[in-house]
Amino acid sequence: MSDRLANQIAAGEVVQRPASVAKELIENALDAGASSIEVLLKDAGSTLVQVIDDGCGMGPGDAERCFERHATSKLRSVDDLERIRTLGFRGEALASIAAVAQVTLKTKRVEDDAGTLVRVEGGEQVEKRPCAIPNGTSVAVRNLFFNVPARRNFLKTPATELKHLTQTVQSLALANPDTAVRLEHDGHEHYDLPAAPDSDWHAATRARILGLFGGDHEDELVAVEDESSDLRLRGFVGAPSFHRKTRGEQFLFVNGRAVTDRYLSHAVKKAYGELVPDGAFPFFALFLAMNPERVDVNVHPQKEEVKFDDQSGIYGFLRSAVRRALGRVHVSPQMDDGD
Ligand code: ADP
Ligand code: MG
């Protein structure tokens, strides 16, 4: 199988929609040690998803090589798979994205005098030259699925794609409060969040939540902090009044990685008992830490789903931790203590 075909097939798994592109690019920026990340979108990402960072950058050789399949600088051995720390680890994202879009990479390391520009369209490198750029990396992904009309037609409405993009940026911004994040769509600024000045994790995360979801929630955030022999949970849940009609503002992270897990979201909802009505979803941004050997993050290419070796133990731990946190501020006779 040619590399080009392999990349187009892999692209089907890695790149579902503009939000998947944003996620991969932002994760790369974080892996590169960026202290500031800018995300520029046009037409709900269908014509442009661009991520600009001030991270370590790449030299001229790596600027070309990073588009090759399995060109990762992050995974050295199979053993590493057991203890994945960096966000990217499969070395497929850039190759996959470049197979189905028009990509312009500009990058520069501190030690280089000039930056490098590489353009790849539909998997073919079409340009490489020196360029002027500040230290760091800019990756602009234009016209996603331009060469795969069936996939392009499969995109949902701009409103839906933008919602996915926003949630992706929100999630990564929540998990990295010490990185400044700016988001712009069609020239309109959505967020411009400073890096947390505070070294205190709770204060920094709280500030980030308020920056993302509005300062009017100031009095509606309840800190959660709990620990068992092998689990640690921290973060914030919304007071019962801070809920939504959709799951859009529920964020769960496992060892720093965003995951979607209906079962565990249910554990949080359960902790509210009757305080939040059926069909409503309380806000939460919860960070669960556990021994990485007890969680498999590699079950899904999008890396959003995970498998735990003790699913029901984690459910119980989450529910009682959130219940305890809520109980501290909202003592209510309606609090469901059963089941
Ligand atoms: P992975 O992140 O799994 O390693 P990617 O395809 O996302 O694979 O990226 C390939 C490689 O390109 C990375 O391992 C890294 O060395 C380099 N790279 C990608 N994006 C950046 C960036 N923003 N800054 C510096 N290096 C980058
Ligand atoms: Mg990556």
List the helices and strands and how they pair.
Blueprint: H1 3-14, H2 18-31, E1 36-42, E2 48-53, H3 60-65, H4 78-82, H5 93-99, E3 102-108, E4 115-121, E5 124-131, E6 136-142, H6 149-154, H7 158-175, E7 180-185, E8 188-193, H8 201-213, E9 221-227, E10 231-238, E11 243-244, E12 250-254, E13 257-259, H9 262-271, E14 281-282, E15 284-290, E16 295-296, E17 307-308, H10 311-329
Parallel strand pairs: 1-7, 12-15
Antiparallel strand pairs: 1-2, 2-6, 3-4, 3-6, 4-5, 7-8, 9-10, 10-15, 11-14, 12-13, 16-17
Helix pairs in contact: 1-5, 2-7, 7-8, 9-10
What does it look like?
- This protein has 339 residues and is α+β, with helices and mostly antiparallel strands.
- The chain has 2 domains: 3-193, 2-Layer Sandwich (Heat Shock Protein 90), CATH 3.30.565.10; 202-329, Ribosomal Protein S5, domain 2 (2-Layer Sandwich), CATH 3.30.230.
- Helix content is 32%, strand content 27%.
- It has 10 helices and 17 strands.
- It has helices at residues 3-14, 18-31, 60-65, 78-82, 93-99, 149-154, 158-175, 201-213, 262-271, 311-329; strands at residues 36-42, 48-53, 102-108, 115-121, 124-131, 136-142, 180-185, 188-193, 221-227, 231-238, 243-244, 250-254, 257-259, 281-282, 284-290, 295-296, 307-308.
- The N and C termini lie far apart (54 Å).
- It binds adenosine-5'-diphosphate and magnesium ion.
- Adenosine-5'-diphosphate (ADP) is lined by residues 24, 28-29, 31-32, 53, 55-58, 66, 71-74, 88-95, 137.
